[in-house]
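During the no-cost extension, the postdoctoral fellow (Dr. R.K.) reprocessed legacy sequence entries with the updated structure-token encoder. One reprocessed record is reproduced below for audit purposes.
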Amino acid sequence: MSLSIHLQQSLQLSTDETRIAEELFTPITFNKGDIFINPIQKNIPMYFITEGYVRVYALQDGKEITQWIGIPHYFMTDLTAWLFNAPIKWTVEALTPVTALCITKSDYDKLSMQVNNWAEKERNFIGHCFEQMEKRIFQFISLNAEQRYIAFFDQLGHLFNEVPHQYIASMLGMTPETLSRLRKKTV
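Re-encoded structure tokens follow.
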């Protein structure tokens, strides 16, 4: 899914509004292992991943905790830092070579002046982001490890061929050994 289709579907932008928004994005590439968002940054852009996979993680007691694996055709940023100018909590690392489209906060803010009903469109989009977060939190607290694994596999099973399994295990709140045992059990 291209950026234009994503903007039209996610934000209900018209063709002209989509063109205006697209002109504010800049192409960028990252090599495997590159860190492109980290807690020491002051201002972070928002990325639309066009190719490749990224990992969103934080350090907790010296241990990396994976929050999410970003896949093509999704936006990527530290949403709380982006929206509220709060300190950045998450590190984003390229797990593969990544191509993306990047928009700065100042360019993004221009959309409110250039797109009709931008505040409402943005609110609906951010609401959808929080809805996805709530769904994930609910699954995390209501499902056991096997159920979380099955739900993840049903939705994003292709990631097992794309990213190291220890990151998937961390994201699911389990050890790599538990993930391996569940994979053997359900195959």
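The CA atoms of residues 79 and 129 lie 9 Å apart. Helices lie at 3-11, 15-22, 79-84, 105-114, 118-142, 145-156, 165-171, 176-186. The remaining legacy entries will be reprocessed before the final report is submitted.
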